[in-house]
Amino acid sequence: MNDPHGFLKFPRRPVPARPVQERLSDWNEVYAGQARLPLVSEQAGRCMDCGIPFCHSGCPLGNLIPEWNTYARREDWQAAAERLHATNNFPEFTGRLCPAPCEDACVLTINADPVTIKNVEQAIADQIWERGYAPPRPPERLSGKTVAVVGSGPAGLAAAQQLTRIGHTVAVYERADRIGGLLRYGIPEFKMEKRHLDRRIEQMLAEGTKFRTGVEIGSDLDAAELVERHDAVVIAVGARGQRELPVPGRELRGIHQAMDYLTLANRVTQGDCDAPAVTAEGRHVVIIGGGDTGSDCMGTALRQGAASVVQLDINPEPGDVRSDSEPWPVYPKIYRISHAHEEARGRRGADPRVFASATLRFEGDGTGRVHELRLAEVEPETRRPLPGTERGIPADLVLLALGFYGPEHDTGLMRQLGLTLDGRGNFARNAGFGAETADPPERAARRRTGGIFIAGDAGRGQSLVVWAIAEGRSAAAATDRCLSGSTVLPAPIAPQDRPLVA
């Protein structure tokens, strides 16, 4: 076990990011080249190895955090790698992208600063690759069963890897030209360099997983035919239905969905083109939406050379400490600064966000292009605009980062498989991740097993990367049980599980 007094000897010290001006001059990760290991080993020693580690409850994967903290403190990276991989297929993704609800569930958080769990996880994940602790793990024997996975985001990749390693023949279908889903085109390079994703794909190819890009199921390939060709199908298409903002002036040029903007920027860093079709260079950028996608747009716009960037959040500014209604160990809504906010603050000297504000309309410049955004303060409870608070701000480029309503509706995939929606607009599924379909009996009878499973945001709704991986692992276990009669694959969550809340 760790030193039981480590948290008394060492204060919390996160790994520092690169200086703001340095990282704004490139697209490399904000931590690229930073020395981690000595600091991480010290910080891992702050873990108390609690009798009841609530960090497990904060993490849907059930990561064995105290165990790999102990090994990281001893700098036994191979043992740490084994314990980290025991519950997580892609720790290099979560170590960079997850907001670390495990840290807010750390027992130290009751009256002190939590362990820097995310830093430790990322350090171990990087050591896994640097020291060769992630060799391909092809199955010892094949089951003779075939599985199609539709979608190659974190849920689809996790499901595919688990099913391949257990012995099934798996093909992953992706409508984009590259594998990765939002990991590829939605996450900016400065948050996760795509070499980490490419490395995992190479590992999966060596294990036997097959990938089919540029194929949209329901359009390029009939979904019912896909089901008839395979013993099981896992639907992991994500929650790609983008919310709209129906206010006057929405039709003006220069107003774009955030994910479309991020995709264009990511294609530049992937080498597809020299410059994006939509750029923030020299423009006054307004981002509508206060979440992570909005923050990603801000960091992207700053690197493109925006004249100014403002982010609008309809929610009131949160406090610095937990409210009584959000006690430990829940993940609280407190004031947080992302790396992008830090970068914008360095230029303006103030938080780039405007809280408790709503967009009333857009004004044009006379040529059909957006020129100004009119906003107003809102009443916190009802979110209704307050009279007398309307004002305008410059807006040459507006990005809508309002989140996603769920999987795209009324698609060929949905119609051809008879998929139905639950009350929240996601694909309906049962307690075993099986799709709830409205199939006519004659079509259901043609299936080889009737196994259609829903994994990730398509069934859960917009969520975190760590929940997507947990969903993929659990859906893989359900699929294997359907095909084999039983399974040894872990199932960390059930479809009805939700984050820990008060």
From TrEMBL:
Domain FAD/NAD(P)-binding: 146-472
InterPro entries, alphabetized: DPD_II, FAD/NAD-bd_sf, FAD/NAD-binding_dom, Glut_synth_ssu1, Glutamate_Synthase, Helical_ferredxn
Chain coiled-coil ranges: none
Keywords: Amino-acid biosynthesis, Glutamate biosynthesis, Oxidoreductase
KW rRNA-binding (keyword) present: no
PANTHER family reported for this sequence: GLUTAMATE SYNTHASE [NADPH] SMALL CHAIN
Protein's UniProt name: Glutamate synthase subunit beta
